[in-house]
Amino acid sequence: MDEVTFKSDTVLSDVHLYTPNQRHLMVRLNSMGQPVFLSQFKLLWNQDSQTDSGTMGGDHRDVPREETPARTGSTGSPPGRGHSGAGFPLQAGQEGTGAQLDEDGDLDVVRRPRAASDPDPVWPPRDKVHPMILAQEEEDVLGDEARESSTHNIIKIEHTMATPLEDVGKQVWRGALFLADYLLFQRDLFQGRTVLELGAGTGFTSIIAATAAQTVYCTDVGADLLAMCQRNIALNSHLTAPGGGGVKVRELDWLKDDLCTDPEVPFSWSEEDISDLYGHTTILLAAEVFYDDDLTDALFKTLFRLAHRLKNACTAILSVEKRLNFTLSHLDVTCEAYDHFRACLRQLEQLQDGQLRFAVEPVEAAFPQRLEYERIRQLELWKIFVEPGT
Ligand SMILES: C[S@@+](CC[C@H](N)C(=O)[O-])C[C@H]1O[C@@H](n2cnc3c(N)ncnc32)[C@H](O)[C@@H]1O
């Protein structure tokens, strides 16, 4: 396959968009005849291993300022630098790291100079979407020793590209990398925990969660997608926390009230799984699953239902990309899916059923970047704390 074919109903994740076709290694066709590619994502956690190994307890003030990457977005100006106070870049001619005008009068944004502590400052550039793509020759030229050490820094993911909307889970989305980054920052929070991921897609975030968690229930819908996810879990099993129960791929459909326990159905739940899930889960994750209002409603109902079934208090951590679209109906740029997500958060917070209390909090996005992707300002993390009501 030389070209990725775009049809009007296909979508392609930005994570895959900027990687030239010829650099993707196509490994097989899936059961639906879609080409499956293998990409490598490099983990930068060894770069600052002293900070990683226990002092990352969540206090953002512990993170040295220079090590905190800029949140690049359309203006490219990091928070607190090059801003005029109203959120705009500096005008041409002003001093500092703000924007200049080029000879045509276009904004020419000066990026923050890289700190000496920035990992791998030359290549690949951290502010570009840049999954490293596995080429057959690269694998062959690696000596045994190099291959051994690189495997601890590499996540291999099989995925498809340019899928129809119903298959979006077969691609890796920026929100998965953003949430995974947060998990790498907050490893202490996950140590030994039981975690449930909803809408896990390729399983990327679950794999990262499993580097510290006891057990991760990695869930989604569709046997084909779940099989791909299971394969990714197997490809990365060496990253699983020692002594942990690993990642269990299971079907969890937000449109259904109950978990499937039919042993004939692939990825169904055993009674033992269910009792472990409800008895021990304290963290729920969901990345990039708020793109359709009906599905968003279904996901929030699922969160609500699960929260009532879990034995312990729990925290849900959600990543969302605020996608701006021009709509003919509004004749304006809107972010309807995001607005609906925010409305659901507000509703949840106002719910008072006497049993549980839901508290919602945004997470500051100033945590270090350990994965290579474009951390645009539209990426957000939200936490929902679920506690017994008073
Ligand atoms: C945009 S993808 C995100 C996948 C992955 N979290 C990521 O960020 O790479 C949305 C995911 O939601 C899943 N999803 C959609 N409807 C669902 C449903 N009814 N129940 C469970 N998962 C669903 C899709 O299969 C897909 O994996």
UniProtKB/TrEMBL annotation:
It comes from the Eukaryota. It catalyses: L-lysyl-[protein] + 3 S-adenosyl-L-methionine = N(6),N(6),N(6)-trimethyl-L-lysyl-[protein] + 3 S-adenosyl-L-homocysteine + 3 H(+). Gene3D superfamilies: Vaccinia Virus protein VP39. It is found in: Nucleus. It holds the Pfam family Methyltransf_16. One of its GO terms (molecular function) is protein methyltransferase activity. Keywords: Methyltransferase, Nucleus, Phosphoprotein, S-adenosyl-L-methionine, Transferase. GO terms for biological process: methylation. One of its GO terms (cellular component) is nucleus. Residues 49-105 are annotated as: Disordered. InterPro entries: Methyltransf_16 (IPR019410), METTL22 (IPR038899), SAM-dependent_MTases_sf (IPR029063). Residues 58-69 have a biased composition (Basic and acidic residues). SUPFAM superfamilies: S-adenosyl-L-methionine-dependent methyltransferases (SSF53335). Belongs to the methyltransferase superfamily. METTL22 family. Interacts with members of the heat shock protein 90 and 70 families; these proteins probably are methylation substrates. Protein N-lysine methyltransferase. This is Methyltransferase-like protein 22. It comes from Myotis myotis.
